[in-house]
């Protein structure tokens, strides 16, 4: 089979000279797990948070079939599918929600370590509850993103945790002997009168970040519905729906854990019947010129890489979805100076509010 990891692409995610589709941690995970993957029965391998397909397709190229895969980012899912089609490996895996069926009776699991300890504990608890008792978990990452506390989290769910030698600034933790399994449960908090629910790994957790607080203090009243774009825990959507009982809101995010959190937040605030939460890459499922109001707190990182290319793509897609005269309300770190991009990509932009760190603007679609 003519397959090479170096041929993988990040598309449809942002690509660039310093944005890679496969890194040293992916290669180390594949090398360390090769012995346990050899001869695996179909359906016995699970891959969790494979950024763009390196782990899944590396294992498939070595002969593994029936691989179950969960990727938090929808863009990662789509990149894996595109890479698999080019490599002729598109029938070797299936994508799953992060639930019991993902890991049930799995013998080997490859995991890219999440940065958030609560996210790691959610995943480890799920594996310990439903995977085969003899499961071996290979959890790897870049050393700069790893902490000793990750070992402790795994030791809370596994009897034995071994640490590999470092290679190219990457390392793998190997966990065996699952115990004390549990289904993930969202963290709960009441903040400024809103019920916030957050599964491990979602931005800001069960709190409201200071940028979103500023946006919430100035949020306009929707005339005919609104979109909470890159919704995270869904607090903007929940605020709109609770403040305006006749309004229906769409909340979108590409992250599966954000979507689960936003649904739980809407339910906790009693507005789940008027808040539709969708997993989407940008606003890809929304028709052109279909919305009159969008709120956005844009992220500035993708798959762990900081880049200034994300927000302009989001502004452009919001402009596509807005009707002429519709408004994009954006909160952004003032140092990022997004106003020229908003003026260029959406339309005339006015400052609504500003504090020591953040700016809220309203951009009117031309």
Describe the structure.
This protein is an alpha/beta fold and 366 residues long. Helix 1 (24-37) runs parallel beside helix 2 and helix 5 runs parallel beside helix 6 (148-155). The chain folds into 2 domains: 5-178, 3-Layer(aba) Sandwich (Rossmann fold); 187-364, Vaccinia Virus protein VP39 (Rossmann fold). The termini are far apart. The longest helix is centred in the first third of the chain and has 14 residues, at 24-37. The protein is built from 11 helices and 18 strands. The strands form 4 sheets. The protein has a 7-stranded mixed beta sheet with strand order 3-2-1-4-5-7-6, sandwiched between helices.
Summarize the structure.
With 366 residues, the chain is an alpha/beta fold. The protein has helices at 24-37, 54-61, 74-87, 100-103, 117-130, 148-155, 210-217, 235-243, 256-268, 310-321, 339-345, and strands at 45-48, 67-70, 93-95, 108-112, 136-142, 158-163, 170-178, 187-191, 194-198, 226-229, 249-253, 275-279, 291-296, 301-302, 305-306, 322-333, 349-354, 358-364. The chain folds into two domains: 5-178, Rossmann fold (3-Layer(aba) Sandwich), CATH 3.40.50.150; 187-364, 3-Layer(aba) Sandwich (Rossmann fold).
């Amino acid at each position: 089979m003519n397959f090479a990891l170096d041929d993988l692409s990040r598309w449809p995610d942002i690509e660039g000279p310093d944005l890679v589709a496969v890194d040293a941690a992916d290669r180390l995970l594949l090398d360390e797990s090769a012995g346990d993957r050899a001869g695996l029965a179909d359906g016995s391998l699970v891959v969790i948070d494979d950024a763009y397909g390196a782990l899944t397709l590396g294992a498939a190229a070595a002969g593994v079939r029936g691989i179950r895969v969960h990727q938090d980012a929808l863009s990662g899912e789509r990149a894996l599918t595109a890479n698999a089609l080019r490599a002729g490996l598109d029938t070797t895996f299936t994508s799953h929600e992060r639930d019991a069926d993902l890991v049930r009776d799995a013998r080997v699991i490859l995991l890219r370590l999440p940065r958030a300890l609560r996210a790691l504990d959610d995943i480890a608890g799920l594996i310990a509850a439903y995977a085969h008792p003899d499961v071996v978990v290979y959890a790897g990452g870049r050393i700069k993103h790893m902490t000793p506390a990750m070992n402790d989290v795994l030791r809370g769910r596994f009897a034995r945790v071994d640490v590999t030698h470092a290679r190219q600034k990457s390392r793998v933790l190997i966990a065996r002997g699952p115990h004390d399994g549990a289904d993930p449960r969202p963290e709960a908090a009441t903040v400024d009168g809103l019920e916030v629910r957050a599964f491990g790994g979602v931005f800001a957790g069960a709190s409201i970040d200071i940028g979103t607080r500023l946006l919430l203090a100035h949020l306009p009243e929707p005339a005919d519905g609104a979109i909470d774009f890159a919704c995270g825990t869904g607090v903007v959507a929940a605020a709109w729906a609770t403040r305006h009982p006749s309004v229906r809101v769409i909340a979108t995010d590409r992250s599966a854990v954000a979507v689960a959190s936003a649904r739980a937040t809407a339910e906790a605030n009693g507005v789940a019947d008027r808040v539709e939460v969708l997993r989407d890459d940008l606003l890809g499922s929304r028709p052109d010129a279909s919305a009159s109001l969008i709120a956005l707190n844009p992220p500035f990182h993708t798959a762990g890489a900081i880049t200034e290319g994300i927000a302009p793509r989001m502004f452009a897609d919001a402009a596509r979805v807005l009707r002429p005269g519709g408004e994009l309300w954006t909160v952004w770190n003032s140092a990022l100076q997004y106003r020229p991009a908003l003026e260029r990509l959406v339309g005339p932009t006015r400052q609504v509010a500003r504090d020591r760190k953040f700016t809220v603007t309203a951009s009117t679609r031309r």
